[in-house]
Amino acid sequence: MDESKADESRAEWLDGETKVLEAPGDHGAEIRLWLRLLTCTTLAETEIRRRLREEFDFTLPRFDLMAQLERAENGMVLGEVSRRMMVSAGNLTALVERLVEMGYVSRTVSPKDRRVQIVALTDEGRAAFRTMADRHGEWVGELFKDLSRHDEALLMEALGRLKGSVRSALSGPQ
Amino acid sequence: MDESKADESRAEWLDGETKVLEAPGDHGAEIRLWLRLLTCTTLAETEIRRRLREEFDFTLPRFDLMAQLERAENGMVLGEVSRRMMVSAGNLTALVERLVEMGYVSRTVSPKDRRVQIVALTDEGRAAFRTMADRHGEWVGELFKDLSRHDEALLMEALGRLKGSVRSALSGPQ
DNA sequence: CGGAAAAACTTTAAGCTTGAAGTTTTTTTC
DNA sequence: GAAAAAAACTTCAAGCTTAAAGTTTTTCCG
Fold first, then answer.
1. Chain B residues inside the 8 Å CB shell of A151
2. Is B162–A140 a contact, with Cβ atoms under 8 angstroms apart?
3. What burial class does residue B64 get, using C-beta atoms within 10 Å of its C-beta: 0-12 exposed, 13-18 middle, 19+ buried?
4. What SMART domains is this protein classified in (chains A, B) (predicted)?
């Protein structure tokens, strides 16, 4: 858009008050780390999608949605599902509709607020999810098999800090 | 990992010929690690997609495709792009078509084998990619800002081993 | 009270993605 | 030297995803 202002006014910002914008915008190490992270995730996710499809004729988004609902004994407001899954509300409309058709999920209008939809697992849905979740656990275990306990703990911690870094970068500007 | 309850309930199943089903079906730690990995990736990727869209009206798949082509001075066979990007060939057809229309990519039939398509960045494409890639680097640097050098190196190594584990699980059963 | 704003969705258009089926060209095999 | 098999795509249908716009309901506030 307006790329002109950044260049023009940059010189002025370079005096004391603002931190220098790293002359060599290297970031090479971070990019490589980012790509490796992406590769790990993509490899594992693709395989999990494939097995879910092959073994249960099911999709990962549906599985993820049911996973959210499993923890909520009395169902969950759609907006809350949206927030937890980090997907748009518009996305969920069709997803929930499908699961309702399959008999795995129920959807009711809240009596307190008629704008609100409450979704919950049916008994059948809960049973189906349990079966799939058990296999899912085995798959992840298999994919991570060669990782030592030490690496596991170490990744858990370091990824926690990475998550913090990303989150702080996202909330920072505002 | 000592889930003795599981061991007990499983005992009756353990007639001689059935092989023990790995560990007790716990995998809790692996699942949590997997979910954390997924969260990190999703958070960063969503933000990168958003900025690419906002600042350049461009998509991540197109960016990724151009990133592959940038390293190939003389273009690349479509099948090779497919393998490197880990996406289906059918996916690339439309993607390449778009970039050709934009003037960022050229596509030619190989003279040696008329089934083969060779794709390459145009000069304009190369310039456009450079601009976007620079910003992309800054974004990743920003998102990973709070990560220490030590964590960076540590993640790089441990994720390398994770990648190996996943790869070996994929190629194992054949 | 009553209009404006906000909230919680739903709908829609555009784009990515895949697996499966189809096409064209090359290689293998007998 | 054909027929068969393989390779390298392209096409297609189905599904996920989002941003933006639209609908209904509730809340705010003057």
1. 158, 161-162
2. no
3. middle
4. HTH_MARR (SM00347)
Tell me what pLDDT residue B26 has: 82
Low-confidence ranges of chain A (pLDDT < 70): 1-24, 172-174
d(CA B110, CA A99): 47
Contact A39 B168 (CB under 8 A): no
Residue carrying structure tokens 């059948």: A124
| Cβ contact, residue pair B41, A44, below 8 Å | no
Q: What is the pLDDT of residues A10-22, one digit of tens each?
A: 334 344 443 444 4
Chain B CB contacts of A46 under 8 Å are 86
| Contact yes or no for A137 and B25 at CB 8 A | yes
Round the average pLDDT of chain A to a whole number and report it: 87
Nearest-CA distance from A89 to chain B in Å? 16
Which residues of A spanning 68-127 put their CB closer than 7 angstroms to strand C?
77-80, 82, 89-90, 92-94, 96, 113, 115-117
Place of tokens 């980090």: A86
Give whole-number Cα distances, A79 to A110, A126, B26, B49, B132, in Å. Answer: 12, 21, 31, 23, 34
pLDDT for A126 equals 97
* Nucleotide nearest B116, from its CA to each C1': D8
In this predicted model, what pLDDT tens digit does every residue of B53-78 receive, in sequence order? 999 999 999 999 999 999 999 999 99
Cβ atoms A97, A103 nearer than 8 A: no
